Amino acid sequence: MSQSLDRGLSLLTALAGGASTLDELAGELGVHKSTVLRLLRTLETQHFVQREGTRHYRLGSALFDLASRALEGRDVRRESAPALAALNERTGHTVHLATYEDGEVVYVDKYEGRHSVRMYSRVGKRAPLHCTAVGKVLVAALPPAQREKIAHGLDYPPLTANTITTAEAYLAELARVAERGYAVDDAEHEDFIHCIAAPVRGPGGTVLAAVSLSVPKVLLDHDGLLALLPDLRAAAEDASLHNGWTR
Q1: Residue closest to 105 by CA, chosen among 150, 135, 69
Q2: What is the residue-wise DSSP string for the chain?
Q3: Which chain regions cross the lipid bilayer (predicted)?
Q4: Rounded CA gap, 13 and 7, in Å?
Q5: Residue 113 pLDDT > 50, yes or no?
Q6: CA distance 5 to 209
Q7: CB under 8 Å to 195, separation ≥6 — which residues?
Q8: Which residues pair with residue 197 across a beta bridge?
Q9: Are 39 and 7 in contact (CB under 8 A)?
Q10: Backbone dihedral region of 135: left (phi > 0), alpha (psi from -120 to 50 degrees) or beta?
Q11: What is the C-alpha to C-alpha distance for residues 205 and 40, in angstroms, rounded to an integer?
Q12: Neighbours of 13 (CB within 10 A)
């Protein structure tokens, strides 16, 4: 670990005990005040540290946001794991769990299919909202005004011949997803893969994540993909119950 990184992490740990002055932090870390001040200024620009008055520093909002998102992601992943593993075992196809973060899909779990075709996805990788089934489920769960804002802020790169390329078409698709309770990626993200997705809910019905089944088109046609909907919905409901949702 680099010395600066080590000192920066030690600084955050020191601030976890409460607001401190520059002199107090320098004494606790055992380094010169100029070094601590340089670290504080860097952390402050990224909102990991904030100044309190003229002399004190405390932990900033970015750290709490980071911790909150990490805990939420870990909880939904852990609680959904049995249902996702069972779905993967039952169907033999690739299963994803994804969440919404900063205008993109983030894959937080993945179970590989038993077939030889491999997808580009991996845990931690980001994907577009407009052409993935999980993305459609996550955005469709948002209030209409937020959907509108997101839809009109996307770029809509045409990744395949089937990709949605306008905000109007995307909003119409989101309305269909919200009405029927599932989404389809009809080879819109990758031209040899199609996918279905459903919401994973928590307390009060809040959508925490989306679970999907992704299948190579050479293995299943569109009707065959939709025939997997009962399995997908059962898994999504099971995962939701484990995350605190009640019917």
Answers
A1: 135
A2: --HHHHHHHHHHHHHTTS-EEHHHHHHHHTS-HHHHHHHHHHHHHTTSEEEETTTEEEE-HHHHHHHHHHHHHHHHHHHHHHHHHHHHHHH-SEEEEEEEETTEEEEEEEE--SSS---S--TT-EE-SSS-HHHHHHHHTS-HHHHHHHHHH------STT---SHHHHHHHHHHHHHHT-EEE-SSSSTTEEEEEEEEE-GGG-EEEEEEEEEETTT--HHHHHTTHHHHHHHHHHHHHHTT---
A3: none
A4: 10
A5: yes
A6: 33
A7: 132, 133, 134, 184, 185, 189, 212, 213, 214, 215, 225
A8: 183, 212
A9: yes
A10: alpha
A11: 41
A12: 11
One-letter amino acid for residue 224 of the chain: G
Phi then psi for residue 4, to 5 deg, are: -65, -40
Q: Which amino acid is at 172?
A: A
pLDDT digits (tens, 9 = 90+) for 33-91: 888 888 888 888 888 888 888 889 888 888 877 766 665 555 899 999 999 999 999 99
17 pLDDT above the threshold of 90: no
Could you give the angle at the alpha carbon of 55 between the alpha carbons of 50 and 56, nearest 5°? 45
Cα separation, 243 vs 201, in Å, equals 7
User: Could you tell me the two tokens for 68?
Assistant: 């909150």
Q: What angle do CA 70, 229, 95 make, to 5 degrees?
A: 35
148 with 154: CB under 8 angstroms? no
Amino acid at 215: V
CA distance 97 to 107: 6
**φ and ψ of 170, to 5 deg:** -65, -45
